[in-house]
Amino acid sequence: xxxxxxxxxxxxxxxxxxxxxxxxxxxxxxxxxxxxxxxxxxxxxxxxxxxxxxxxxxxxxxxxxxxxxxxxxxxxxxxxxxxxxxxxxxxxxxxxxxxxxxxxxxxxxxxxxxxxxxxxxxxxxxxxxxxxxxxxxxxxxxxxxxxxxxxxxxxxxxxxxxxxxxxxxxxxxxxxxxxxxxxxxxxxxxxxxxxxxxxxxxxxxxxxxxxxxxxxxxxxxxxxxxxxxxxxxxxxxxxxxxxxxxxxxxxxxxxxxxxxxxxxxxxxxxxxxxxxxxxxxxxxxxxxxxxxxxxxxxxxxxxxxxxxxxxxxxxxxxxxxxxxxxxxxxxxxxxxxxxxxxxxxxxxxxxxxxxxxxxxxxxxxxxxxxxxxxxxxxxxxxxxxxxxxxxxxxxxxxxxxxxxxxxxxxxxxxxxxxxxxxxxxxxxxxxxxxxxxxxxxxxxxxxxxxxxxxxxxxxxxxxxxxxxxxxxxxxxxxxxxxxxxxxxxxxxxxxxxxxxxxxxx
Length: 505
Ligand SMILES: Nc1nc2c(c(=O)[nH]1)N[C@H]1C(S)=C(S)[C@@H](COP(=O)(O)OP(=O)(O)OC[C@H]3O[C@@H](n4cnc5c(N)ncnc54)[C@H](O)[C@@H]3O)O[C@H]1N2
Ligand code: MOO
Hints:
Blueprint: H1 3-8, H2 21-36, H3 44-54, E1 79-80, H4 81-94, E2 106-109, E3 117-118, E4 122-123, E5 133-134, E6 138-141, E7 147-149, E8 168-172, E9 184-187, E10 191-193, E11 198-201, E12 236-237, E13 248-250, H5 258-266, E14 271-275, E15 279-285, E16 289-290, E17 300-301, H6 304-314, E18 318-325, H7 329-338, E19 343-347, H8 358-365, E20 368-372, E21 374-377, E22 383-388, E23 391-396, H9 400-419, E24 427-430, E25 435-436, E26 442-450, E27 453-456, H10 466-469, E28 473-477, E29 481-482, E30 487-492, H11 494-498, H12 500-503
Parallel strand pairs: 1-21, 7-8, 15-18, 15-19, 16-17, 19-23, 21-26
Antiparallel strand pairs: 2-14, 3-14, 4-13, 5-12, 6-8, 6-9, 7-11, 10-11, 20-22, 22-23, 24-30, 25-29, 26-27, 26-28, 28-30
Helix pairs in contact: 4-9, 7-8
The structure holds ligand LQZAQKY5 and molybdate ion (MOO).
């Protein structure tokens, strides 16, 4: 293991020689062959999509018309990586003229709301805390000490205690509501009772920052000590300190995290109004795929069937089914047209090989091709289509890393819109090593994050998952590549940003 591998820490080789340049040449060559053999067929759906793009009738996210791009020698349909993501993000809104996520909000119990999006602002249903409470175990006291201590103490969860009179104290537990006319709480370690049962404030170490959320001692008030008195309000959490009933705590569109669940419960909610997860049906194409055991006789293991469902859930989807579909046009046609999912996600069959049935089937259905190829490596044959009102099809290429690329380029923004989730804040980091670029296309390259740099990983070829399985993010390498230290956009992988338990629910 060399130094960079040791830093990467997972035994995965960092891409000191970031990419095998042959990969790119092979892809280029394949694309040229593809073009020569008629990927630009007279397919009317594709022609429509192409014409609308060429005619400049598809404005970009800001309503501007994108400048005409020079035709590429290898793939005249392809959109740039950024354009493709914008189209995918806006597709679900644009179809119906809606500006928001298309599904009606549903109330769901807190126990099942994790990972959903708030359809309405979270508004406090109560003051928090709902009554004045003790922030410490000790005594509720009234006025300056010493104090006569009541016999019966106050525990959390009990009804209101009778008011204290000046010079009185009562034992109190953290979280218990303080009796009326309490002026402060004296921590148990800051008081002692004398032989007559009277409570005195004792010398104490300087107070730690108060757990009540306010300074435990207002400026200018001396700390509790023998003969001294306790600051007014000390260690009392006043009613409404965190919020008042009716106050807006979180906006609509917030992702329901464990902390949101906790806040909602504290604020009085039993159910939350959320947007339903978009339902995704996964169709895994390929007669060569095995679901168990070792590869044999030209058959290989299906890597996408196990990988996609949890990843899709992390992107906000509900996976309704994963079906294996034979390399047969009629079977694929039936599988797509019978699906009631919001999004059909196919894997494989996007290219122009003898059993690549995705394009012809979309044509037969009369689907509208919104994205037909993207200037990105790997994954350039990926596509997005509208198959019917309110149903989309994302076609992921079969090569596994190309499928990941399609997932993050097209499925992620589409599902994000459908789920009503906010867009992640884009961010950049310097890439430690140079990464060779594709001449025209964006590259997505697995990286690990170490300190304040990202290390490109090897094993980033289209058919390989070894790099991405060890990665924290994918670097968005612009055409032409990056220099060492160049600030580069990163796409976080869900397990790196949220932890497996949080995001794969
Ligand atoms: N003449 C051309 N051929 C190809 C081109 C091209 O431009 N012209 N592009 C290449 C690129 S780039 C990609 S990516 C693939 C996309 O192909 P498909 O989407 O049609 O996928 P398949 O041909 O079905 O499979 C490709 C490859 O991936 C393997 N595969 C498929 N599914 C799985 C799975 N679930 N788990 C693991 N591996 C899978 C499959 O066995 C093939 O090896 O097309 C190139 N060809
Ligand atoms: O480049 Mo493909 O798009 O090999 O994955």
